[in-house]
Target: Twin-arginine translocation pathway signal
Amino acid sequence: MHTTNTRTSRRHALGLLAASGLASLAGLGALPALAAAPAKTPMEVWKDPNCGCCKDWIVLMEKAGFAVTVHDSGNSAVRAKLGLPQNLGSCHTALVGGYLVEGHVPAADVFKLLKDKPKALGITVPGMPVGSPGMDGPEYGGRKDPFDVLLVTQNLMGSGVGTRVFSSYR
Model:
């Protein structure tokens, strides 16, 4: 494990050198493009094995740069274990960077969550709004219903959760 961390650090340092233009000054010459390639962010997803929209959302997350591990065991138990009320639920639950991501959340919002690192349980798109990522296939005829991505926070003294709008899609 130590070797992997050392390689990652060295690769990161070489990428920084290449980006700063100091590689030639350091006597390293041209560096391969792979040196600056970021690692994919791991994501675990729990879903029903027969849900097509979940599969479509996962494909979008993989295209956005997430390394997705899928658990085809349903998501009700994991959602409850993580403390997300059923009324904020959807058809799949993901964990990424220590945050819960529930439902058809756009990849841009997942990246914003990971960048901003708010004190929160995670983000959710309750239900399954048509036009949201994974619910936007040709079978919906281009229909796009408005929806909000909600930031889910713990209330004081663990008395449940609170929400506020994280982003809106109109």
